[in-house]
Amino acid sequence: MPIDPTDLARSIGALPTLELEHGLARTLQQVVDGAKQLFDADGAGLMLVDQEGALRWASATDQSAQTVEDGQERLAQGPCAVAFSQRAPAAIRDVNTDPDWQEFTKVLLGEGIFAALSVPVELDGGVVGTLDIYAGQPRDWDPSEVAALQAYAGLVASLLGAAVTAQVKGRLADQLQAALAHRWLIEQAKGVLMGRERLDAQAAFERLRGAARSSTRRLADVARDVTGGQPLPTNRRDLAKGRAEQAKNRETAT
How far is the C-alpha of 134 from the C-alpha of 107, rounded, in Å? Predict the structure, then answer.
């Protein structure tokens, strides 16, 4: 469904600026509510990166959207993960025919969601999260819808930047501050693994996270080792899984 530029401007113009006394969470809630209304969607959500470099649920319009966001966080699957790792919009047009994410597909169908669109949220030259909308029926996302959601993501980035500058307190603000502190180190380590093991960004991140979990170390510490030239343990099964996942993701990116 095409988005009229006038409707987009009116929708963004009606959104609030960051109110320090109310914190970041309330403002972001109003943004995802506005996105849901503009796109005539059945749900919307926002995911932000944490200090370990992983996407975490931050805000959602309702319980169904939160469940879908939680599923992507738990399974590291879905358009959010693709948009985040590939720094580009990612969509599901029809969950019955689009690439199968197995367990995540079950989450979508369990919530009555058949289509989704995610775009990256970028701050200071890096991706810090994704903005996502969900539809209860198959949907062939129009280019104007992609552009409109990217405009909304730009607004989210501005709010996040303002929160960092103003040193806003609260769970989301603290999470963002910690994430920014480690982001570049993790991105450098991903780049090293992408070149060394011929992986895409998402598969490289999963390699880092898997190594951190198996060694019960912080992801930032493992990333520091990789950028320092130390190899990660080679797990052929994990590598094969990662390459299969990146082939699937290429089909999903818009």
Answer: 13
Nearest one of 228, 216, 159, 217 to 189, comparing CA atoms? 228
* Sequential pLDDT tens for the chain (254 residues): 788 889 888 888 887 666 655 677 888 888 999 999 999 999 999 999 887 777 888 899 999 999 999 999 888 889 998 998 888 999 999 998 876 788 899 999 999 999 999 999 998 778 889 999 999 999 999 999 999 999 999 988 888 888 777 767 677 777 777 777 777 787 788 888 888 888 887 788 778 878 887 888 877 888 888 888 888 876 555 545 555 555 555 555 55
Identify which of 51, 62, 79, 34 has the alpha carbon closest to the alpha carbon of residue 172: 51
Q: Which amino acid is at 123?
A: L
List the one residue out of 97, 100, 60, 61 whose CA is nearest residue 77.
100
Of 187, 200, 189, nearest in space to 231 by CA:
189
Q: Which two tokens stand for residue 108?
A: 């979508």
- Give the Cα separation of 140 and 102 in Å (integer): 21
Six-digit token pair at 78? 């879905």
Q: Which two tokens stand for residue 129?
A: 């999260």
